[in-house]
Design a protein that fits this description.
The structure is a homodimer. Chain A contains 22 helices and 21 strands. By secondary structure, chain A is of the alpha/beta class. The two termini of chain A are 24 Å apart.
Amino acid sequence: MITKEEALLKVEPKQLDQLLHPNFDADSLKNAKVVATGLAASPGAATGRIYFTAEDVMAAKENGVQDILLVRLETSPEDIEGMNIAHGILTIRGGMTSHAAVVARGMGTCCVSGCGVLKIDEEAKVLTLPDGRELHEGDYMSLDGSTGNVYAEEVKTVEPIIEGDFDTFMGWADEARKLKVRTNADTPRDAKQARTFGAEGIGLCRTEHMFFEEERIFNFRRMITAETLEAREEALEKILPYQRDDFEQLFKAMEGYGVNIRFLDPPLHEFLPHTDEEIKPLAESLGMTFEALKARVESLKEFNPMMGHRGCRLAVTYPEIAAMQTRAVIEAAINVNKEGLSVEPEIMIPLIGDTKELKFVKNVVVETADKIIAEAGVELNYKVGTMIEIPRAALTADKIAEDAEFFSFGTNDLTQMTYGFSRDDAAKFLSDYYSKQIFESDPFAKVDQEGVGQLMKIAVEKGRQTRPDIKLGICGEHGGEASSVEFCHRLGLTYVSCSPFRVPLARLAAAQAAVKEEMGIE
Amino acid sequence: MITKEEALLKVEPKQLDQLLHPNFDADSLKNAKVVATGLAASPGAATGRIYFTAEDVMAAKENGVQDILLVRLETSPEDIEGMNIAHGILTIRGGMTSHAAVVARGMGTCCVSGCGVLKIDEEAKVLTLPDGRELHEGDYMSLDGSTGNVYAEEVKTVEPIIEGDFDTFMGWADEARKLKVRTNADTPRDAKQARTFGAEGIGLCRTEHMFFEEERIFNFRRMITAETLEAREEALEKILPYQRDDFEQLFKAMEGYGVNIRFLDPPLHEFLPHTDEEIKPLAESLGMTFEALKARVESLKEFNPMMGHRGCRLAVTYPEIAAMQTRAVIEAAINVNKEGLSVEPEIMIPLIGDTKELKFVKNVVVETADKIIAEAGVELNYKVGTMIEIPRAALTADKIAEDAEFFSFGTNDLTQMTYGFSRDDAAKFLSDYYSKQIFESDPFAKVDQEGVGQLMKIAVEKGRQTRPDIKLGICGEHGGEASSVEFCHRLGLTYVSCSPFRVPLARLAAAQAAVKEEMGIE
């Protein structure tokens, strides 16, 4: 007989990850040959016939193909529907936080990303293996998203069997842990999925993911290409009902748990096409000349988009975007609260580096929100806070906490800026860092406690100095990695947030951190 | 009668900047109309006929045109010769540390950069003003590099008149200051210029600027496109004599003062062409197929080059580059020391974020250097140190100082990473930051003492903790800005380094900082 605590420490959190996804059949795997290795971007195993576009995936499904893999150079938001159907996703380019990786983890779909040793010709629909062999549409491949291994053949998979009483075990974990566990979710589907895994709220809702459906993206593009404030506000007015409806659904899915909504983050050029062939039809539908749209696309191009016009910088230039998003959040909260929920939305301003940026954007939010609340004649509490993802924000957290009611560590960006390398480019040279033993682990997977962690510690201390009860969370990918969760526990954060399928892992990791602390285990 | 100290405090350092450059004639300026304003990238005033390419500038000079301005979307290293001839440079794109801005400051040539309200058609050779007027090749314009103002007409300039005894005054400054003043110089010409302005050594020699002449760039491109170590070393062997000769000349120009040589820093794709038209002839001369070269160019492309495969990351992947550069530095020092100098070269490894990176590259340097020194049978001291330009390097400076014999703050990059915005992209949105009073000054011009300065302070303290006598310098653009120089004095740095024409300014600013401290003036 062992104690609950001992039982909790006996299970590797990573095992839970595997427990929730299909694995390869051991016998079938024994005879299979690894032809390439990419990044283990989203766990689980998948086997199937390969297709090179999201449309081909959808067509294959309609034609009755059972096992389907999507293979692409990299995925983009237009591929969502195909990604949803595919049993596994393989990309040639992109890191652990590329579109494919993030979306696949959210869906719980197996994904191997950044498998650069494979050559892809998307037009000709040919994938060339390192040994020169060519694979074509409909050929079989198999992917292991937990190791990054890729096979050019069918490897049988088995569904996970949960032995013993999973719920009892997780119940022990929940009793033991101090950290709350939230989820990163942008859709009601992800939110519901995360609830079944025990998520206690949404730690990160990336509102930009809500703009990608056909009609929405059209109005969003109208907004970007608008040349006057009036035209921009008109386009925003069209987007408002969608956003409001999205938020209502998220609030409902979360059943009263906290929902943290991050305002628009990526650079606007990510929403516009870049080739002449794509610009032409869009110009027509927007009622612009080809030249005018092309000039707008050109003017939005950036040398280093990761360090460009994004996050709160967009809200500084276009406060009307923040105002529209505030309206959507507040009206949605008022609507669902009328139905009996008691939602207190959390509005999160991304990419703050200076307290005056936050003051400026917060002003827009508060003015808009308070007016709507007063007009509706209701009571509604809401919080305004910020991401801590820019080194300067951590260093000046005492000042930022004057206006921020909560901090959420965006450790993806914080890692990028602290190291000075971008997650999309680093994959290429980090392999040399591992082989030459300069790095022991990927700082985008495990929090770098020495450097990035030092900034987090500074931010926690300075933030609490100004606002002792400040709510502190993490919403980077690290929120679903065991050693990082333990670090967050030691820092005394309020919650970690991770993709839905990682929630059980985070619950167990948080429990282990608490048990270890109590038992004095280093 | 006033004291020397009072005299020193009476002169604005910025005035010295103007004292060394032509200014507009006051009467002529009165009637001139500002048609646009860009960034005040390099001080002085210039008037002349505009030309749209470096070649056209050179042709105009040969045809006897007296006053010449170069106008370009942005400049690149191929434009150097034309920039050298032009009396002023205007670019439509690029910030305070763009190629045009940095090179112009080094040359002491007036430059307005990033003047985005002007539209340029380089092929048609047309510049369109905000009011729609078009200027063509040979039309007159005038530029004020101290304010950023642009005029579409001739405005007479006057050469500066130095009143009083400039040398006596600067002598007082030198007596008073504690900070040494070095210069950023990559050519013997810049180095000599800086010496006449009183520079006490080179704080930053950007070795990549040495690769741009025709024959060198050819061999450098051979190195980049080499597919085997042998082919790469063969190409490096061809570059070695040039680098060695460059260093010999720099050492001689500096007359025994310290010379700090930064190893290769920018991403390799910056050295390759990107359009099919340019790739074709290069492929031919390199003996490669067009497809192979194009594939290599593609494979080197990066999403965020500023955060990509550059700095010490290149030396980790290709240690042979660091070995070649070490050989060139050490052999050059041995050669000039035989002629009676006593040079102790300083080798600076850029973009360090982790102590293990430095250990790895330092090993390559020390092994190579010690072997050459032993073979030559001479005594030669040299130092190996690092830039502090990545936030993580500042945060872990205690560990980095175990291997670094000096730190030099690269405050351009450090500002980029600490704020999380790139200097090339920020110009666009920072105008909103000024108009909305979020920022009071450009953090790329004046050190942000609160954030970036906090990291510098951490690095100074932690560095000294490990190595009390560590030599500390700054080589970012800030080394030539008065309030930043004062900040460096208060931090207790050893020296500041700035472009040649800023050296007098830095000498005075350093003196004022020392006098203020002594007199207890805040």
